[in-house]
Structure formats: C-alpha cells, structure tokens
Design goal:
The structure is a homotrimer of 269-residue chains.
Chain A: H1 2-15, E1 18-22, H2 28-38, E2 41-44, H3 51-56, E3 60-64, H4 70-86, E4 90-93, H5 101-113, E5 118-121, H6 123-130, H7 150-161, E6 164-167, E7 172-175, E8 180-183, H8 196-209, H9 214-236, H10 241-254, H11 257-263, E9 266-268
Parallel strand pairs in A: 1-2, 1-3, 3-4, 4-5, 5-6
Antiparallel strand pairs in A: 6-7, 7-8, 8-9
Chain lengths: 269, 269, 269
C-alpha cells in the first residue's frame, strides 16, 4: 500500500487537479494552503448560483459541514448531484455530526441524496452516521458491528453505503468494506490546532482528483497529514501551537515520495 | 487577584470546557486556535437551525459582531436566549459598535433581549454602548459617569447592566460595578495584528466556561492575551507582524500558572 | 515612478486610511493583516444593512468576488454606489471571473452599475472581463487588442472602462490607457500560498485610500506585494509554504521607502 500511496503523490504533483470545496470559514484558509502545498489547486465557492458549475470544472468535490447553514447545504446538494452525474469523486467531512439535530439531519440528507466516495471524520462523527436510519440499498449494520469500535464502524459503513470510510484519531482506520487499513502516523499536538481534520479531508480530495482509487486516496490524504504532523513536531517540539501549525504546512509542501516510503506506517488491519 | 487568575488557568486546562462561538469569519481561525491554546475546546456554529442546540452543550457562549448579518444576528439571539435559560455565561464582543447604525442597533437589541455576562470591547465600542438608550432595570448613567474615561464607563456600564465590562487598550479596565481592576500587560505590536481583541473575548469565554466568576474570567482572559503579547514581542522583536502573530499563539499555548504569577500586572483601580 | 511609489508608502504610513472590504472568507484574515502591515486600517463588513454606511466612513472600498453570494453581491452594489457618490476609490478584484456564469454575470453587473477605479486580477480573469459585452461609453476593444496579451488587454480595458487595469502574473502589467507600466518583482513561491492576489488588491486599496493617484496606487500595491515575496523567499528559502506565508506578512510590515527604492523594478512598457 505504501508504495502505491507514494506513487500517487508524484502523480498528484504532476497533475495539479482542481478541487472544489464547500467548506467552513474557520479553516478554509488552512485547507486551501494545505491543498496547494500537496500540489493541487483549490477553489472555494458555495453560492447556489454557481456550486454545480464549479464542480463541473473540478476533478473532485469536498463537502465540509463545519459552519453549515441552509444556504450552503443547498449548495452542497446541487454540487454533489452534479458531481454524481459527471462521476467526479465526492469527499464528505461530516464535522460535528451528532452535536446538533441540524447536523445529524444534514448528513442524513446528504447521504440519502448523493453518492459519496469517501466519508472522513472522527470516531464520534462516524459513529453518529453509523446510527442513522438512512434508507440505502446497502446491507444494514448488524448489532455486532455497532460496537463502538473504529474498525467495525468503518467496515460496516463502507459495506452499507458503498463508500470508503476513514476514521481518524490516534490510530486512523480506513475501509472500503473489502479491505481495512490502519495508519499509525500523526502526533497528538495536531489536536491542539483547529482544522487538521478538515485539511486531511482536503488532501483526500486532492488525491482523489488526481485519479487515485478511493481507498488509496483516503489512505494517502490521511497518511500525508499524519506524516506532516510528525515532521512538524520534530522540527518545532514544544515551541507552541502557532509554530506547529505553520510547520505542518511547511511539511506538506515539502513532502515527497521518498518521505512517504520512509515514514508511512500503513498496515492491513 | 493574580493568584486567583493563575489558579483559574490550571482549572481551565483540567476541564477543557466547550465554548460556542457565533463569530466573524476574519478572525475565526485565530480565535479557535487561541481557545485551543489556552486549554478549552471551541465550536463555531451560526445557523439559526442549530445555534441554540450548540449553546445547550457548551459551557459558555461568545457572541462577536465582527461580520454580522441579519442571519447571524438572529442566531445570536436564539443562542443567547438558550444560554440565559440554562445559566450559561454569555460574552459579548460588540465589534464596531458605533461604526454603523446596524451595529449600534444590533448591540442595543442584544443587550435588551439577553442577559450578558461580560461585555468586552475597546473604549470606542463601549463608549457607544454607554450612550445607548436601552431600557434596563439598572441605574441610569449619570452625567458625571459619562465622561470619556475608561474607568467611569466600565463602572457605569457594569452598574447599569449588571454585567462585567472589560475595556481593553493600552491599559485594560474591568469592572463589575463593585470592583474595578486595571491590567497593564500587553504590547503595542498587538494593534498591528487583526483579531487580538476577538481572541481576548474568546479567552474570557474559555475562563467563564471553566467556572470562574465573571470578574475573574474577564481579568484572566484579558491578562492572558496581554502576557502572550509581551512574551511574543520578547521572542520576535521587530521581525514583523506575521511572526509576532504566530508567537502570540505559541505563548498562549505555553502559558502556565507560574508565568501568570510572574508576569500579570493586575491592580485594583 | 519608483520614487513616487516610495513616497506614497511614507504618506500611507502617516495617514493610516480606513479601507472597507467586502471580501471572501478564505483570505480575509491575510488581507486584513496585510493591510495593517502596510500601515492602513481594514474593516470587513458585508451586510446589506451596513455596507453603504461603512463605505461612507472609509477612504477606499475593495470588492473581492472570492466567495460571493447573492447577499454579498447586493452589498457590493450598495457599497459601490455610495463610494461613487462620495468619490471614494473602488478597487475590484474579479476572483474567478470566467470560472462560472455567476461570476461572469456578477463582474458584468458590477462594471455596468459602478465606476471602478482599479481592476486587479490575473490574465485569465481580465481576459474574461475584456470579452464581456458590457454597455459602456468607452471605446470598444478592437480585434487586434483582443490578442491574449497582458499589455494589450490592460490598455484596452483601461481605455474602454476608464479605470486602471492591473494584471498580475510572472510580470505585472498596469495601465490607465495613457501609460502602461510593467513590474518585475515577486517570486514563484507566491503562487503556492492562497490570497497573494487578494492581498495585492487590498494593498492597492490602502494606497488609493491614502490619496495616491490610481495608477500610482495600483503600481505601489502590486510592487509592495512583489517585493515582500522576494524578501520572504530570501529569508525562508525552501523551508516551506507555511513559513513563506508568514514571512510575506513580516516583509510587508517592515517595508519602507528605502526598500522600495532599492528593490522595485517598475518600467514604462
């Protein structure tokens, strides 16, 4: 897997795919800079008047629920439908799913109306999605799978919805239903900077836009973020979270296939 | 006072309270990172569909008028009412009060409909609030108090509205009506980075969410920001405002009770 | 020209003009910090209820189409009309013009309803504007001028609309129709950080607000950004795009007339 992921980085930097984001205003700048750093080109546009048009010219669409409102949810649906028509991959980051009824209803609606390619979130968010009573043609979650366990949740979500589920945390778990992968990169200082999850989802979009398969794209984006976190901490140490934040972006911009091969800790689960 | 403030920092880091923000998109990233750096957990959510729900799960609510619009003002009212019902502290940052009729009307409406716990702004903003003809059950401002003087304005606002008024500037003044405190921390380079006021209000929310009394929370948040500014300038000097900005966040993330005791210059006025 | 531009920087730092922005949420923080760094005072406000009022108290207005929506387009029109009534300069940054019908229609509407002072964008964006069938009292673009050439496009746009056209790229071209100027500052690393174009437009607004003529303001803002890019790269080298981003802001905050005289490469075309 690691070799594939490293090759995808080289491919991404050669292609500079355009990635369309409907995303939150808290971390939009970091997401744009992370996506530029990894070698893709971001465009943020959330007006209903243009959401589908922007998706049409992009190679991937990333929907991030961070500061959603009724206007941007409508834009997400329009952009997502266009992406589905054109077979453009859709990455969904269900930020805060479960924290309010509005977020839970929104993720339910997005999953019911769109074919999502990769769902990336933390364990709490994906556990929420796992508990949703969404009408799908997939297999229902069994009682056993519903245990609060990242591997089981990722696999059962992937089985049920037909997407790749990526649960990030101290260990990342990614599954397409057939294969389940664990990634052991990253550093705990990443939890002290807002937006590392949003950036990871953005990177997954960049890899997907460059033509990687969805499992590989998810693994590559999540591993890239983790490796950047490790490299940043090695450089910055305990200087503080401001410097760590900047060093994360530095590391993403200097990441290459060799660093991936050397540092990525990706295992079949 | 300084000892209390230092203890509150230790308490905050142990509790990691969730703080709900309805805030502007210019400084939202810095506010989130400042709040993480001090040890709390921020959530930004401004949709009317979820504003009250998010407040319900938070330990404090911070309303910042920086890039308000009619949609977010409605969300502020809904969130604020829920906070009042649940006895969750409300910090209001009346950014730009007085600069437009819309902002002046908005702060008037928020103060008329909500019980605010701490009002933090600069002298110009709080002078504007002081001149408002808001129907309250408090004591009216006397002519003498209306002098353009931070101490008098802070005290009279606190008397009249029953909140803690915090006026930040080259010297910070904080009053609950009974006690008035001056803080002499900070560095003038802070005026060259956008969002240091928004970050201070966010820190006040974090301390309030951790259970500090409102006067202590206001003093702790404002002093923390000032100490971070001094530490950042000591480290960065004249390198430039970009590096100073990052060093501010570094300093907040490494602030501890000992630094507070050593550096805080908090006096009874 | 270089001497005039250097003098304008000294004037700007003495005046600290207020600049009103209706701008995108991706780069708003960087734009505000760049404008503070150069010596002006930014205010971001996009509610229709206050857009015109904020423009009234400002010395320049900057309209940036980065994350436009129907609400902010209405605010841009209201603010722009007020600016025109009060003879306040208007800088328009047509981000993404041509990328969606909505953006193309919006720039068409803004140019039809407002008198713009400076239009700053990249070659693709200004080529789009050049191809618009906007009813104006200016001279139509001849077939010869329509060649995909920055000098011809800048000059013909300036002739036709009566504004200063500034096309930034590896070489920047600025024209008021009478005079066309080329600027050869900048560094390619700037394309790896989002918002360098938005920051340049913000700086043009700052110089215009300090009273510079429009050609001089455009040259000063664009050259300042380019010089900052060079200085940042000299300091940071290949460390990474995060550090480069911060060094850009450092350089803007420390730019002075002497650096301008030494580094600016501004030529009559």
């Amino acid at each position: 897997m690691t070799e594939y992921v490293a090759m995808e980085l080289t491919k991404l930097r050669a292609k500079t795919p355009l990635v369309h984001f409907i995303t939150n205003y808290v971390t939009a700048n970091d997401v744009a800079n992370a996506v530029l750093a990894i070698g893709a080109s971001p465009v943020m546009a959330d007006a209903i008047e243009e959401a589908a048009d922007m998706t049409s010219i992009a190679s991937a669409l990333v929907l991030n629920m961070g500061t959603l409102n009724h206007r941007t949810v409508a834009a997400m649906l329009a952009a997502g439908k266009r992406a589905n028509e054109r077979h453009i991959p859709v990455v969904l980051d269900p930020v805060g799913a479960g924290a309010s009824a509005f977020r839970t209803e929104t993720v339910k609606k997005l999953l019911a109306e769109l074919r999502v390619s990769v769902l990336r979130g933390n364990l709490s968010e994906l556990s929420c999605v796992s508990g949703l009573n969404v009408a799908t043609k997939g297999v229902d979650v069994s009682a056993e799978d519903a245990e609060n366990d990242a591997r089981a949740i990722a696999k059962s979500l992937a089985d049920r919805f037909g997407f790749v589920a990526a649960i990030t945390g101290s260990m990342d778990v990614i599954s397409d239903g057939q294969r389940t992968i664990c990634i052991q990169n990253g550093h705990k200082e990443m939890t002290k900077v807002t937006g590392t999850g949003c950036m990871a989802s953005g990177l997954v979009g960049a890899f997907a836009g460059a033509g990687a398969g969805m499992l590989t794209a998810a693994a590559a984006g999540v591993a890239a973020m983790g490796i950047a976190g490790e490299a940043a901490y090695e450089k910055i140490g305990e200087t503080g979270t401001g410097s760590f934040h900047i060093a994360l972006l530095d590391a993403l911009s200097r990441l290459d296939a060799g660093m991936f091969l050397e540092r990525a800790r990706i295992y079949e689960a």
